[in-house]
Write a structure and sequence with these properties.
mainly alpha, about 400 residues, 2 domains, globular
Length: about 400
């Protein structure tokens, strides 16, 4: 599974790096139309997360995931020859849907195999591998940006298309995971009736905004509000990527227990809150001090990211009913989808639009979210059909 993810995310790194440049400068699609297509594709793809998990419970996740990879590769390859905007939009929707299905079924596979500690460990390895793959892909795609020719950009897209097929082939090497729900059972989306789990999903969507901070708010903040040079953004992101690759597995140890995962999540909320204050303090100070403050802020931020990810996985796996893990993971994955879709406008309005006071509001939001998640998992103020005993009982 790690090898399949490495191949897949390497291709993603290639695509993500050249996508905007190729389709705006070579194909001639406007930035506004490109953003609209990606937003529509992202929104529609969210609708397929829960049905994909439902199929994983009834049929098994492996073969469906492999098929989704292949379809995503075919759609990506067709993009090489696309000049019509309606076709471009349709292909992006297909890519979004198949990508969502593949991600959901990867999580379903992990959720259905091994004991609680093994699940978190596997997820941690995959996250480290994902960062490594995207980093390597981004590095290689830099040559295409340097050459700056249509052939160079198309080569990146073609390689990306091939990686999907190769990732599918490797994923099919996994042992078959048997269905956990009889196909004759009536269709019942039990995860959508689980108020405790839905509450955890909603809180996780709020906490996932800290990823949007990294991708959107922090680069804009560095450029517009601090004296740090533009290239310092890369240094900040290298700190984040390197820390995840090196420390994610270590940070996830012991988080297989649901209560331990909730404590890590609360700790993450406080850490990300402190990092928001530190980011705000980087404005209006000398260059060297601003650069140092931004690095310190990212170190605190990535600590929160590491323990928060482990806690989030523990909660997502631990609160779910074992026989419906696919469906539950489909619901839980919506938290990252909503955060990624609605988050950019929200965090930009606060961090950039309101300045330091906006960062303070974000800090409060993250701290409260961590506390509420801990209360939800360990307390009794929300009732659910899912038992709250240690997850070994599941």
């Amino acid at each position: 599974m790690s090898l399949s993810s490495l191949v897949n995310t390497f291709g993603n790194g290639l695509f993500m790096t050249v996508e905007v440049v190729y389709f705006t400068q070579i194909v001639g699609i406007s930035v506004a139309k490109l953003a609209f297509a990606l937003s529509v594709a992202g929104g529609i793809s969210l609708l397929f997360s829960i049905p994909a998990g439902h199929l994983a419970d009834r049929i098994g996740p492996r073969d469906i995931a492999a098929s989704a990879y292949v379809l995503e590769g075919i759609a990506t390859f067709i993009l090489l020859f696309t000049r019509d905007y309606s076709v471009f939009l349709a292909l992006n929707i297909i890519i979004g849907i198949t990508g969502t299905i593949g991600q959901t079924l990867r999580m379903a596979t992990i959720a259905k195999v091994g004991n609680p500690e093994d699940k978190i460990k596997t997820r941690a390895y995959l996250r480290s591998v994902t960062n490594l793959g995207i980093g390597l892909g981004t590095l290689c795609a830099g040559f295409a940006l340097w050459i700056n020719t249509e052939f160079a950009y198309k080569s990146m897209l073609a390689i990306d298309a091939v990686t999907f097929v190769l990732a599918a082939y490797i994923f099919r090497k996994l042992p078959f995971v048997a269905p956990t729900v009889d196909r004759k059972e009536p269709i019942s989306f039990v995860a959508l009736k689980d108020r405790k789990f839905l509450g955890a999903t909603a809180l996780n969507s709020v906490m996932s905004l800290h990823f949007v901070l990294q991708n959107v708010a922090i680069p804009l903040w560095v450029i517009r509000e601090t004296s740090a040079p533009r290239w310092w953004i890369s240094a900040i992101m290298i700190v984040n990527t390197g820390a995840v690759i090196i420390f994610q597995v270590r940070a996830s140890r012991g988080s297989g227990d649901l209560i331990a995962g909730a404590k890590l999540y609360r700790r993450a909320g406080f850490a990300v809150a402190v990092s928001c204050i530190l980011y705000a303090m980087s404005a209006g100070i000398p260059t060297i001090a601003a650069c140092a403050m931004l690095i310190v802020a990212m170190l605190v931020h990535v600590f929160g990211e590491l323990v928060g990810s482990a806690g989030s996985w523990s909660i997502g796996f631990g609160l779910a009913k074992q026989e419906h893990q696919g469906q539950y993971q489909g619901v839980y994955s919506l938290s990252w989808g909503f955060g990624g879709t609605l988050g950019p406008a929200f965090v930009t309005a606060l961090a950039i639009g309101m300045g330091k006071s906006g960062w303070a509001i974000l800090a409060v939001i993250f701290a409260i979210t961590g506390i509420l998640m801990h209360k939800l998992v360990t307390g009794s103020w929300l009732h659910s059909e899912v038992r709250s005993e240690p997850i070994e009982a599941l």
